[in-house]
Amino acid sequence: MSLSILQGFSKSLAMTVLSEIGDKTFFAAAILAMRHPRRYVLAGCLSALIVMTILSAAVGWAAPNLISRTLTKHIATILFLGFGLWSIWDAFHEGRESEELAEVEAELDADLKASSGTNRGNDKADDDAKKKKSRPFFAQFFSPIFLKAFSITFFGEWGDKSQLATIGLAAAENPLGVVLGGILGQALCQTAAVFGGKSLATQISEKFIALSGGILFIVFGIQSFFSTVE
Question: In Å, how far from its chain's centre is CA 175?
Fold first, then answer.
């Protein structure tokens, strides 16, 4: 593994873990896993985040080919410093974690009520379970639960701070390393959310995570500012 890939990998891994732990999609995965089979939830959430990571890295890789590398460097520097200050502000903004968890729970509860309302009066749970067992493996993976987890995670992550940070990181570092580090980081976070459940999500110190992420972003911003354009 070349030095540039290793550097992009390590930065992306650290950034992803500190950005995603305690994030809205982290809570969503934890709550969904309490209501549905874990393998479908994990597959759906992780697939969405892998697609998002690859798309974000592709945009970051294309940016230096569309605009000058000097301007790309300045944009990346501003993004990192801005996200760093944003994360530090979040760290000292009390009640953010509980509000975010309550918001996710309310959204999922509303969705659950809507879906149960449409299915009320149908006594086909056992038949559906039998049909699921007889389905091919590939068809089982694209179950409504998988699609629900995928869509909630994908659209919840779209335009999020971590997505924009991945774009900036891929513009400044080796895109392959950024993708590999991002995927590993997403896999670690989503696995912890799905198998740790809501109890893990509520025990995490949001202040510590946000503060650590903010410091990391600022370090990336300073490094980007003093880096030379090739």
Answer: 17
CA angle 119, 122, 125 (to 5 degrees): 90
Structural element, H or E, at residue 86: helix 69-91
The residues near 55 (Cβ < 8 Å, ≥ 6 apart) are: none
The CA distance from 221 to 169, in Å, is: 10
**Tokens 């997403």 identify what position?**
186
Identity of the amino acid at 48: A
Task: Note the pLDDT tens digit of each residue in 120-171.
Answer: 444 444 444 444 444 555 555 567 889 888 988 888 888 777 888 899 889 8
Report the SS3 class of residue 168.
Answer: helix
CA dist., res. 41 & res. 148, Å (int): 8
Determine what percent of the chain falls in helix, strand and coil, rounding each to the nearest 5: 85, 0, 15
Angle at 184 between CA 178 and CA 187, to 5 degrees: 135
pLDDT for 165-205, tens place per residue?
A: 899 889 888 999 999 999 999 999 999 888 886 666 566 66
Matching residue, tokens 């110190």? 205
Distance CA 206, CA 37 (A): 27
